[in-house]
Design brief:
The protein is of the alpha+beta class and 320 residues long. The chain has 3 domains: 85 residues, Butyryl-Coa Dehydrogenase, subunit A, domain 1 (Orthogonal Bundle); 68 residues, no CATH class; 148 residues, Up-down Bundle (Butyryl-CoA Dehydrogenase, subunit A, domain 3). The longest helix is centred in the middle third of the chain and has 40 residues. 46% of the residues are buried.
Length: 320
């Protein structure tokens, strides 16, 4: 396993980081609420090639996409990068804006599909069929994180069957593994940015004549948070790498990275918010943007406790 960035990857990260620093500051994130989507920003990102690089002929490895997903999380960019990237890899071609349902449909309806409120195509597992349904964006399902979630009736619109039976299940499962790995990278970015905010505030805010970061109760928690964030970066990158280079372990690592990412992002964002005292809950402070999004990303696939149970069976089902 080689996770040291190549010169091409470093150039990719530098270019996208500069782009998001300019185009997705906190005021732009706020302006995109409550829909959670900035059409202008997405159009510019597409022009940069971030949508086509996810396609099979785009030349990008999943680790390359994970590096961009980290930056999407750091800047809370209101674009459906992860969903569009995963959907593009399933379809093998670029659609105007495609997304994927994270849970199988029930009675022909896919619930709380990420980005479905802005997407023109939704991929979903409906019974034993993997389908793509094209049509207009769907009505927004209001949520705490201002994400473009929506329910999708898979029998409304133009429906195309992509695969059936075991192949459909396998392709959907692979797409979910890729979503987990990229979502873990987004969660890392959210956590890393929240940690930066916490450190800056702990240096600035004074109590009893000294910065609050000088008190052990805060300094030690910041150190623990920094360690957890660094570990999450390593695990999420390893998961993305493994899905391309070590398929036998890729799915398990993606599940681990996503679940750990949810825990880390929630803890770090929560710690940072509480270091701000009552100010942290106010809309004028940026940390609440990270706190709300960490909550949503970590439960987007359902109850993490159930996911931990499934992971445990995967890891230890062969043990005595």
């Amino acid at each position: 396993m080689e996770l040291t960035l190549t010169s091409d990857q470093e150039a990719l990260v530098d270019a996208f980081a500069g782009f998001l620093a300019k185009e997705s500051p906190p005021q732009a994130v706020r302006a995109a609420e409550p829909l959670g989507f900035d059409a202008r920003l997405w159009s510019k990102a597409v022009e940069m090639g971030v949508a086509t690089m996810a396609l099979p002929d785009g030349g990008a490895a999943l680790l390359d996409l994970a590096l961009l997903a980290e930056l999407v999380g750091r800047h809370l960019a209101p674009i459906p990068f992860v969903e569009a990237a995963v959907a593009g890899r399933v379809l093998g071609e670029q659609r105007q804006l495609a997304t994927i349902a994270l849970r199988p449909a029930v009675d022909g309806v896919a619930r709380l599909v990420p980005a479905a409120a802005v997407a023109t195509a939704v991929i979903a597992l409906d019974g034993n069929e993997l389908v793509v349904v094209e049509g207009r964006p769907l009505p927004l399902a209001a949520n705490m994180a201002s994400a473009p979630l929506a329910d999708c009736d898979l029998h409304a619109g133009e429906r195309t069957v992509l695969a059936t039976g075991a192949e459909a299940v396998a392709r959907h499962a692979r797409a979910l593994d890729e979503w987990r790995a990229l979502a873990a990278s987004v969660l890392y970015g959210i956590a890393a940015s929240a940690l930066d905010i916490a450190v800056a505030y702990a240096k600035q805010r004074e109590q009893f004549g000294k910065p609050i970061g000088a008190f052990q109760s805060i300094a030690h928690r910041l150190a623990d948070d920094a360690t957890a964030v660094q570990g999450l970066q390593l695990l999420s990158r390893k998961a993305a790498w493994a899905l391309d280079d070590d398929p036998t372990e890729g799915g398990r690592l993606a599940a681990m990275a996503y679940l750990w990412g949810g825990e880390v992002a929630n803890k770090v964002a929560g710690d940072s918010l509480h270091y701000h005292g009552g100010y942290g809950f106010m809309l004028e402070y940026d940390i609440q943007l990270h706190f709300r999004r960490a909550k949503l990303w970590s439960v987007a696939m359902g109850d993490p406790r159930a996911a931990y149970t499934r992971l445990g069976y995967q890891l230890f089902s062969g043990a005595a």
